[in-house]
Write a structure and sequence with these properties.
- The relative contact order is 0.19.
- The two termini are 20 Å apart.
- It is built from 10 helices and 9 strands.
- The strands form 2 sheets. It has a 6-stranded parallel sheet, with helices on both faces. Strands 5-4-6 form a 3-stranded antiparallel sheet.
- By secondary structure, the protein is an alpha/beta fold.
- Bound molecules: nicotinamide-adenine-dinucleotide and zinc ion (ZN).
Length: 262
């Protein structure tokens, strides 16, 4: 087993000392589950090669309404990952909630993996791909039902009324859902430890929520630098799954950790 670094020990101490942890995450939390993030060369290159456009263009409201067929081809090829399972980061956060230490996961992800891992307090700032709504009559559909239409050969999924179905995700040009935004603002304001991970902090207004945090310690775990590295108490440039698993799921070797009950 590799020995923990000083930073990993510090993170474990901060988590142990906190009573109201909030986690703020992005696409990097799910890359270890095989879902690529938007900044990755893979997504950028493949989107340009296969579609001649950027992911940001295709996932905009204008594009959805002007070319829903291409939009859905993109969802099917690049976003829909029914085989994805929660990774160590999702599991560690579910454990912290179960232990009563974590009050909310605020996520920019649309993949539902936190809920699959067992987290119940999940605030989805950018909505979810798990459900769809008809733009004409408002009827709701499960994602699997909609994707089955595409897999059975339809270019475009349809409501029973013939209307266009839209995934319940926030597209570029659209506002964030009020309830998730308010919930996230309250949770972050009340937190005594904020852990920001797997996000470039480049997508607004989600990223600006972090500035509402009033606690002492801000932790950032990200593979690449973020605009808030300078103000964080602890910055770990590494894999969020490995780092959180080491801090939460396993006792550190040579430490004074009590064995966990499970
Ligand atoms: P992003 O793509 O802008 O940034 C991801 C960040 O995570 C990068 O800085 C990268 O260095 C880091 N990263 C990648 N893998 C990591 C790992 N294993 N450990 C630690 N860090 C890692 O993501 P974002 O800031 O969340 O914003 C992009 C937008 O794309 C969001 O609006 C989000 O809704 C959407 N998105 C969602 C999913 C998903 O639901 N899984 C996937 C791709 C994009
Ligand atoms: Zn309808």
């Amino acid at each position: 087993m590799t020995m923990p670094t000083t930073k990993e020990r510090r993170l474990k101490e901060l988590i142990e000392g906190a009573e109201n942890i909030v986690f703020f995450g992005g696409a990097g939390v799910s890359t270890e589950s095989g879902i690529p993030d938007f900044r990755s060369d893979y997504t950028q290159t493949r989107t340009f090669e296969d579609f001649g456009l950027s992911p940001e263009t295709i996932l905009s409201a204008d594009f959805f309404y002007s070319d829903p067929t291409t939009f859905y081809r993109y969802v099917k090829d690049m976003l829909y990952r029914p085989e994805a399972v929660p990774g160590p980061a999702h599991k560690a956060l579910a454990r912290l909630e179960e232990e009563g230490k974590l009050s909310a996961v605020v996520t920019q992800n649309i993949d539902g993996l936190h809920q699959k891992a067992g987290s119940s307090q999940v605030l989805e700032l950018h909505g979810t791909l798990a459900t769809y709504t008809c733009v004409d009559c408002g009827r709701g559909y499960a994602g699997a039902e909609v994707m089955a239409q595409l897999e059975n050969g339809a270019d475009l999924p349809e409501c029973a009324c013939g209307g266009l179905l839209k995934p319940d995700v926030v597209l570029y040009q659209e506002g964030l859902p009020e309830a998730a935004l308010m919930g996230a603002a309250v949770a972050i304001t009340e937190a005594d430890l904020l852990i920001v991970a797997g996000t470039s902090l480049m997508v607004q207004p989600a990223a600006s929520l972090v500035s509402l945090y009033e606690g002492e310690d801000l932790v950032i775990i990200n593979k690449t630098p973020t605009p808030l590295d300078d103000v964080a108490t602890l910055v770990i440039h590494g894999s969020v799954g490995k780092v959180l698993a080491a801090a939460v799921l396993r006792p550190l070797p040579g430490g004074s950790d009590r064995p966990r009950s499970r």
